[in-house]
UniProtKB/TrEMBL annotation:
Record-annotated Solute-binding protein family domain positions: 95-220
Organism listed in the record: Trichococcus flocculiformis
Protein's UniProt name: Peptide ABC transporter substrate-binding protein
InterPro entries per the UniProt record, alphabetical: SBP_5, SBP_5_CS, SBP_5_dom
GO cellular component: plasma membrane
Membrane topology: Lipid-anchor
Lineage of producing organism: Bacteria, Bacillati, Bacillota, Bacilli, Lactobacillales
Length: 222
């Protein structure tokens, strides 16, 4: 069980605007406010604090399904796609739109070179392979398994019929990952923007095992 209340802080690049009061005329007021704003130096650390009203079950997206945990996961992490200001999915840590095979079964993504984890590690293709294999592994008993069923062999692996290495996800190299589907899935790119498809730092998560995601110290974000 996690701490009773979590407060997650996310570093954001924000600008500070100083509003002042003046007894002078409107022109002087605008002038003084403009001077104050232009001379203001933002604090070295830019922090926004979000309070979550519910207790978190886990920040391991392979096993988390409660709304409180998902709110934190989706605010602190980014997948290949993310939700944009207009509510539609847009590119996240994907450098560009994927190369899709003519039969619609293969999607190859390039991960942004500047995509990093909060501990400084780069986000790699192996992070996706590790996480998705973890979710479909029957030993995980993931409540989110059905969302990965479009991936080739996902259901058979979860039923214990195939090894998780047979899952339709492959690290071509450090920054290129390929997904192979069992059948064409028109909404697959939308699925990639959901919490179930968020990657995990495979080195950290594999080292921590079941302790991963149990508190903020045992979790890394991207």
């Amino acid at each position: 069980m996690l701490k009773d209340k979590w407060v997650i802080t996310t570093t954001l690049a924000i600008s500070l605007v100083l509003a002042g009061c003046s007894t002078g005329d409107a022109a002087n007021t605008e002038s003084s406010e403009g001077a104050a704003a232009s001379s203001a130096t933002p604090a070295a650390e830019q922090v926004i604090t979000i309070t979550n009203t519910g207790e978190l079950a886990s920040l391991d997206n392979a096993i988390s399904a409660d709304n409180s945990s998902l709110v934190v996961l989706e605010n602190a992490n980014e997948g290949l796609y993310r939700v944009g200001d207009d509510g539609a999915f847009e590119l996240g840590i994907a450098a560009e739109e994927p190369v899709v095979s003519e039969d619609g079964l293969e999607y190859t993504f390039k991960i942004r070179e500047d995509a990093n984890w909060s501990n400084g590690d780069p986000v790699t293709a192996q992070d996706f392979v590790y996480t998705y294999q973890k979710i479909v592994d029957p030993a995980t008993a993931s409540p989110n398994i059905n969302k990965l069923y479009p991936l080739k062999n996902a259901e058979a692996i979860n039923n214990g019929e195939l090894d998780k290495a047979e899952l339709g996800v492959e690290a071509i190299d450090e920054k290129n990952v390929k997904f192979t589907l069992g059948n064409p899935t028109a909404y697959f790119k939308d699925l990639l923007g959901t919490s179930s498809y968020l990657p995990q730092n495979h080195q950290v998560a594999s080292e921590l095992g079941s302790a991963y995601g149990t508190n903020s110290e045992n979790t890394v974000y991207n």
